[in-house]
Design brief:
elongated; DNA-binding (chains A, B); 10 helices; TetR/AcrR family transcriptional regulator (chains A, B); HTH-type_TetR-like_transc_reg (chains A, B); Tetracycline Repressor, domain 2; homodimer
DNA sequence: TATGAATGACACTAACAAGTATCATTATAT
DNA sequence: ATATAATGATACTTGTTAGTGTCATTCATA
């Protein structure tokens, strides 16, 4: 009833203003994300998307062809932002920590789960996610490794990435572990580096225990 | 298969014999597997399951409650056979090769994909798959590592398992790589062991080059 | 100011799928 | 033997959902 409460406001009818029109598409995708993450692509109905976005089905159809169109647009917009955060002045260890933390967040675990689930129907989304995710992460790891340890150590970039994800990431894909904490991510990154002999010279060598 | 080829024989009507009754349930699950693997749980209809199993919907309902019942029974029966092959007399390297080969087979990739996709709706299946899959594999790797390298090396069992899967397994979950060949599996296993310093004393140390 | 475009609200259609009913048929069980 | 249970074939009912139609409303644009 509180007509000014943005959470309960009933969207007014009629043609939107220019700014509203610009934002509408992004709002729809933003609203679709948690719906798809929670229920999975196949179980989401168009009405759910419309309700979540606080628009009608007709409006969504004016922006996208169908449910597949909303889904692919959402995944693409998310996938291309995965690698956008590029504070290039960090160390190998801090880069590893950020990768562990980011890839084990609830959103990215859910996105990965969605794309795996629909990789048969949307193979191009799988390719997009990998190109913008894993491939860029590995390339960036390789750059840092080359800078700190020389060209000879570069082949360890991909195994390092694999270890950064580790069994924990597999468990999270299966819903068997909660999202990682920052402290856990740091610890995990250090141990992965140690396993491959990639400890930074300036950093204390962490004990392998626990 | 054998005399009564299920692909060409028209199943007779009426109450099945005792042996038919025993086999019917397994046949339904066997027929359901490729259907679920190809289309994903949410997109499979009961009629598809019935057609694939060469029975009617009524019959399936006499064995299972609903589609979820067929799915969970199928996944459970498959998951419990994942770790059944136990030629305990092999080396660490041959064990690793078998793990790489098996977990990258089309069937297990598809099963894993299915369970990941439905982990929200069927969390107990995710737990079952992990308990009967990853957990047992890691335990067996730990046994071999302890026998060959002593207790101190046992903590490397889980990282080893992670490296055995590697980026390739992630790509296969996304449908970006075909199933692994036996030769590739061997090569991959050797390189993973070398990265963690777990080369067997009797084996030639493989070069790190790709 | 007048016309048209985009929207919300709501109803509608068509297709599809889950689950049930019926009947003839074949085997089991008593 | 006779009744009963399970099945195949087929049609049916019921619920859900994608997609469309209609109309009033609000704003853009000329």
């Amino acid at each position: 009833m509180t007509a000014h409460d943005p959470a309960h406001r009933v969207r007014k009818r009629g043609r939107p203003t220019a700014s509203e029109r610009v934002e509408r598409r992004a709002q729809i995708l933003e609203a679709a994300l948690p719906i798809f993450l929670e229920h999975g692509y196949g179980n989401v109905t168009f009405d759910q998307l419309a309700t979540a976005a606080r628009v009608t089905k007709r409006t969504i159809y004016s922006y996208f062809d169908d449910k597949a169109g909303v889904f692919t647009a959402m995944v693409r917009s998310l996938a291309t932002t995965v690698s956008s955060d590029a504070p290039d002045q960090d160390t190998l260890e801090s880069l590893c920590t950020r990768i562990v933390y980011r890839l084990n967040s609830a959103d990215l675990i859910g996105l990965h789960r969605l794309v795996i689930a629909e990789s048969t129907r949307f193979p191009e989304l799988a390719q997009t996610l990998h190109d913008n995710g894993d491939a860029r992460h590995i390339a960036r790891l390789a750059d840092h490794i080359r800078a700190e340890f020389g060209q000879v150590a570069v082949p360890r970039a991909q195994p390092l990435f694999t270890l950064l994800l580790g069994e924990e990431h597999r468990k999270r894909l299966l819903g068997l572990l909660p999202p990682v904490s920052l402290a856990e991510a740091e610890d995990h990154a250090r141990r992965a580096l140690a396993l491959l002999g990639l400890q930074s010279s300036k950093t204390t060598v962490p004990t392998q225990a626990e």
